[in-house]
Amino acid sequence: MSNKYPSKAIAQETLKEAEKLNKGQWVQHAEYVALACKNIAEHCEGLDSEKAYVLGLLHDIGRRVGIVKEKHTIAGYDYCISQGWDDVAKICITHSYSIQDIKSVVGEMDMSKEEYDFIENYLDSIVYDDYDLLVQLCDALALPTGFCLMEQRLVDIARRYGFNQYTLLRWEELFKIKEYFEDKIGSSIYQVLPGAAENTFGLK
């Protein structure tokens, strides 16, 4: 296993420790994102399902610092870099940017100018791989109560954060990612996400 991400057991313990610091539904959301990543990766040649699970589980680990908005991305990046988990650190930032532009997010930019500039330059300097795309997709398939239709999650986010000029472009990009992985697995992604179509709860 690469030392750029932890084992499944360490990742699970890390999330438990983070929950003690900041309780909230973000933890259950992360657990479902991880399962979605694992389930889809198991059907994709070239993807490691355990790595996918770990990246999904820790994508929001920056929320360990408390109740924050977009600051959770850089907080997660900094924490994971301190642990030597470079692959997870990357995901902590990229999961929020299906459009590779810091201006595309709708959440509050509750961070310093230095942190903002770092993310802006970081996004300009990297190339997304299938793990980045997978976590972006699965982040849009998981509510704290379970798997859901992507449209349901997008409405959930829009209700809480509103819209901006990038909203429809972000949605279009996520549907492209969905189609990309459906081509890889040869079926609808919902075939590997039990109960997704039936989950109509947790929109708050």
From TrEMBL:
Source species, domain of life: Bacteria
InterPro entries on file: HD/PDEase_dom, HDOD
Domain HDOD: 19-65
Keyword line: Hydrolase
Species classification: Bacteria, Bacillati, Bacillota, Clostridia, Eubacteriales
Organism per entry: Clostridium cellulovorans (strain ATCC 35296 / DSM 3052 / OCM 3 / 743B)
GO terms, molecular function: hydrolase activity
Stored Gene3D superfamilies: Hypothetical protein af1432
Protein name (database record): Metal-dependent hydrolase HDOD
